[in-house]
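Lab notebook, bench 4. Still working through the backlog of constructs that have no structural model yet. Next entry is a single chain of 156 residues. Request: give me the structure tokens for it.
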Amino acid sequence: MIPESELIRKEFVIRQIDFLDSVSLTKKSLLRWCCLSLGLISPKESREKGFLIFDALFTFLFTQKTSPTTLDIKSFIKEKNNVEMSEKLIRYHLNRVIELGLIKRDGIYFKINSSPTSEERDSLKEAFNAWTKKQVEAELNKISTSLEKLQKSYEQ
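Model written out:
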């Protein structure tokens, strides 16, 4: 193992994807685009399970205005899509969104991880800006500085 690997605290996957007008035409295509761009699903993802979990999560949070549990999400998916899913798989996908900082676990409930500086307490955009965007920008600055130092070390 490379010694520096112990220094890694978090990983971000952000994909550069064209945002065509057609993406905004349906909720499903918009959700798929967001999941792809944030690395929550793979580009060649053939299974829909992760996508179904995020659809259920956002339906509870934004349509029903409630904070779901894994059992709520499991029941919703079974009822709406006739798909059985394990709680372990649901938790796996929810943990990926938690790692991004968009949602948080509050006991058995999942809620938006509100930005501490925003008045919009239930805004995904504000949560993303507070918990992901700022961290990515900080890491890009570190990389830029290290590349500059690297170049100088080779020029000496």
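Notes after review: The chain has a mean pLDDT of 92. The two ends are 30 Å apart (CA to CA). Flag for follow-up if needed.
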